[in-house]
Amino acid sequence: MARLLKGAEYLISEATKDDVFTPEDFTEEQRQIAETAEQFAESEALPAEHALEQHEPGVAAALMRKAGDAGLLMIDAPEAYGGLALDKATSMLAAERMGTGGAFSVSYAAHTGIGTLPLVYYGTDAQKDRYLTKLVTGEWAAAYCLTEPEAGSDAMGGKATATLSPDGKHYLLDGTKQFITNGSFANLFTVFAKVDRKHFTAFLVERTFPGVTVGPEEKKLGIKGSSTTSVIFESAKVPVENVLGEIGKGHKIAFNVLNVGRFKLGAAVTGAAKLALATGAAYANARKQFGTPIARFGAIREKLADQAAAVYASESLIYRLAGLIDDRLATIPADQPGYYEAYQQGIEEYAIECAIAKVFCSEVLADVVDEVVQIHGGYGFIQEYPAEKYYRDERINRIFEGTNEINRLLVPGTILRRALKGELPLQREVMKAMDALMNPSLDEADPAVPFAAEKATVANLKRAFLVVAGAAVQKYGEALKDEQEVLLALADVAIQAFAAESVVLRAEKTASTQPEARRALAAAAVKVHTFAAAEKAATAARRAAFYVGEGDTLTILLGGIRRFSKYDAAGLLQAKRRLADAVLESERYPF
């Protein structure tokens, strides 16, 4: 039975295979929902891509209604309002499969995530009665209005205002929201504004309210088929009963819902990476150079192998996190007072892991599509081939839901804040890691234990994070929160440790239930990914060491990092060739 682990606890404790949820654990019902989402993406969303890119009126709204008819909009909503109230693993699975649906996957994710969840989590019964049923059926589409022309990452710096009308019946909203997904066809906006210029508050704003104007479509680099507009509020009349949550507590809604948005984005880009990988494999098999399919060339095969292992890691990470959140949410009685407040606290517990998912998975997709373009050669630059579109569409994912830089800063920043509050015994673990650094053990991994070398490497990557983080705290103290270069480097070590552990535990957990060929393929993915993770973590840790250490301290840190990032990757080439064979034979992601 899985333990109920806290957020960031992975850094200071050894998880076991029984602590993780994996894609191999899906129920038949979950697989059916996944199939529904995949079929919708293939048969409805992709055929409409050209019409969506031309922004033909009514197309996106009609697709949203069809998604509602297919039951794909009700997964996260409570049953009392027509929803299914399913777990996060199912929600992420639907998001992943819809991630293959081109630009509509962006509209879908915005609607079901940041568009609908503020109402689900914070809405009153009357607000849910009025709006939620329309959203889960697709009759209405939803959008989320947080970003402003001068307030992107600094969301709390927004200038939109809300002033109570003289009769006390309305709030008058003034301001402009920028880059609003689904802006052109959304019926309901969750809008953030400052009451009396100081109390950051959320409002439910209908498109037809007086004073609401939607701007023209932005001309974008990618995801051209999704709607992105500004929304302008000029003394927009919003009934007082449409305040969402409490006045002055809008930041709770904004940031808590973004945790799920980041998580869901991680799932969606994992689906997109699988599609791109399949496209690259099919092209490699078909394209000939020097009279030979380029799929036979080691240079191409290594690209496919590396990216297959990276997608395996992305998938492993996403569903491990889904399991963590679902296990915690399952402890909250649905009939308890303040259920959704406790529910949100349960998700917020894993804010660090949600940020990790957003960063890691979006960068996996970036690497995959970059290599798919490279595999296509000159044709990867031509619009007739899908690689060009994958490349353009990918780029926004490292900006959406908080830039990857902001999310990276959040990882060590939140870890250190929790440590200072006594919620995470970081200092004790730093001391243990320093002891391991100063008194190296001669123990070697037992080859009889499955993935012993990889587990040892994961444990050591965590030690690398702890010793460098400890040195950073010792040098900067509380001022570390302002040393962004150091925090970014620490984040990369923490991210790689979580991803590598997710891969190892998944492979170990599924080994006893999978056929020999599948076990061997998973073992190959583990080896390829662990090697890459150790190299990336070592580079980041060394960078941090040079930022925080000098003299003898620096020498000790660098020696420890060298030892903590050591991984015996014997058989790496054979592992890559096994993965490449599987990808090319099936012309798809092979797991």
Cα Rg? 24 Å
What would you say the CATH architecture of the domain at 405-586 is?
Up-down Bundle
Overall body shape: globular
What is the assigned CATH homologous superfamily of the domain at 405-586?
Answer: Butyryl-CoA Dehydrogenase, subunit A, domain 3
Task: Give the uncertain stretches in residue-range form.
Answer: none
What is the H/E string? HHHHHHHEEEEEEEEHEEHHHHHHHHHHH
Number of E-type strands: 10
Cα end-to-end separation: 25 Å
Please, how many helices?
19
Largest sheet: 8 strands, mixed
SSE class: alpha+beta
Mean pLDDT: 96
Classified by CATH, the class of the domain at 405-586 is Mainly Alpha
CATH topology of the domain at 405-586: the name is Butyryl-CoA Dehydrogenase, subunit A, domain 3
Keywords: FAD, Flavoprotein, Oxidoreductase
Catalytic activity: a 2,3-saturated acyl-CoA + A = a 2,3-dehydroacyl-CoA + AH2
Domain Acyl-CoA dehydrogenase/oxidase N-terminal: 27-139
Protein name: Acyl-CoA dehydrogenase domain protein
Structure overview:
There is one protein chain. With 591 residues, the chain is an alpha+beta fold. Among the domains are: 121 residues, Butyryl-Coa Dehydrogenase, subunit A, domain 1, CATH 1.10.540; 101 residues, Butyryl-CoA Dehydrogenase, subunit A, domain 2 (Beta Barrel); 182 residues, Butyryl-CoA Dehydrogenase, subunit A, domain 3. Helix content is 57%, strand content 10%. The chain has 19 helices and 10 strands. Strands 1, 2, 3, 4, 5, 6, 7 and 8 form an 8-stranded mixed beta sheet that branches. A two-stranded antiparallel ribbon has the order 9-10. Helix 8 runs antiparallel to helix 9 and helix 13 crosses helix 16. The relative contact order is 0.10. The model has no long low-confidence stretch (mean pLDDT 96).
